[in-house]
Amino acid sequence: MKLFRFRGGVHPESHKEETGDKAIEVLPLPARLYVPVQQHIGAPAEPEVQIGDKVLKGRLLAHSQGAISAPIHAPSSGTILDITEHTAPHPSGLGVRTIVIETDGNDSWADGLKTINPFELDTDEISARVGAAGIVGLGGATFPSAVKLNLGKKYPISTLIINGGECEPYLSCDDRLMRERSDEIIDGIRIMLHALKAKQALIAIEDNKPDAIEVMKVAAKLYSNIKVVVVPSRYPMGSEKQMVQTLTGLEIPAGKLSADLGVIVHNVGTAFAVRTALRQGRPLVSRIVTVGGGAISSPRNLEVPLGTLVSEVFDYCGGFDQEPARILMGGPMMGQLLPHTNVPIVKGSSGVIALTQKEVAIHQTQPCIRCGSCITACPCGLLPLEMAARAKKGELQGAVEYGLMDCISCGSCSYVCPSHIPLVQYFNYAKGELAARRRHKQKAEETRKLAEIRMQRLEMEERAKQEAAERRKAEREAKKKLQEAASA
Prior knowledge:
Blueprint lengths: L23 E3 L5 E5 L9 E2 L6 E2 L4 E4 L8 E2 L4 E10 L7 E9 L19 H10 L12 H5 L9 E6 L8 H8 L1 H15 L3 E7 L3 H11 L5 E6 L8 H9 L14 E5 H13 L5 E7 L7 E6 L4 H7 L9 E4 L6 E2 L13 E5 L1 H4 L12 H5 L6 H10 L2 H6 L10 H5 L6 H65 L1
Parallel strand pairs: 1-14, 9-10, 9-12, 10-11, 13-17
Antiparallel strand pairs: 2-8, 3-5, 4-7, 5-6, 7-8, 13-14, 15-16, 15-17
Helix pairs in contact: 1-4, 3-5, 4-7, 11-14
């Protein structure tokens, strides 16, 4: 199969050898789980349990709201201890609504969906079951998977791309999943093909994962419409836009979806979760997490119940050999800096990485030397320096005009910058500020509409009072005339 080269990209040190050969272990059940209702792109789920409720594993804790949302389920059996604000796995350190479960140690499952042959179901039923299972993109994007599976009804989908690239340094959770659960992944891919009515599936795996490539080829050999494609190890190969371009030669236009090109992209972990939901009737309540970094005593790949605190994950891996200089959720290129370890593992947590001072290699920012390295490295063909200069000055609209919203925040520009300018941080700040302004504008508009509705209500009430007063006056006058007529 012919492959196409995307522009830009970098080759960071992989550091995958630290965990790549570590088989998946199951983390012992924690005493408490802290389950946020916002673990996905879109509207947060709304709790439908109360403090004191007894729940079984897989029980619905919070239902989805709106078209873009995902439900949340109990990762284990126990008692609802609290529904409160708890630190989100985000650099801000802000709180998010969280359901706290005191586990009972039994890990007892609730009755799931009735299992049925998924190939007897239509697209709507498959999507409904995937949605009810709370499955989102497990590569890190956390977009509700049911929505993407339904796109086959709107777009003629020819190709399903299964992303096994895992281009982020340190992470090996997808590698291990493919090596250990290949048959289940292939089964999930077949179900997704059936739902999308797509002609073929391409499983893209970077060439630095030879064992996963071989195992997946063996698992797929019975199905002529499923093919394993070996792609170069080049960051950010795992990004949807770059993956689509590498395999098809087509670029996703700005503001468009891959579905506009007849392509849908899902992660290998998502395919496994779809299979679990359809074959076993079980929702997404755990995920594979790589625990790595030079500060970790014993790096591993773990299957972790959602809601487990990062501190407990690190403790199980022997804690730290030295004080970490930085703790990340996800990889070092696009991962989120954690404020502390008292935050929970969520659906998008592909890894928790504790980096040493040497690995972080903090450098003092120097003036730009106009070398153009950031432009060469940008896989989206943008002008990072121009965007950063405007973001730094607060000229957000100028940054947008230079393509800010097309930036995938891969960090390639920051990685190659010889002056160590934190370019991607400027972009993330600008995007966050724009989102805050949109929310403020939306809130102001909603407030204005509420004020108009209130004024209309007050005017209606005033008119009703006037009309009632006029009726009473008319009734009094009519009564008075009747009395005068009777007196006469």
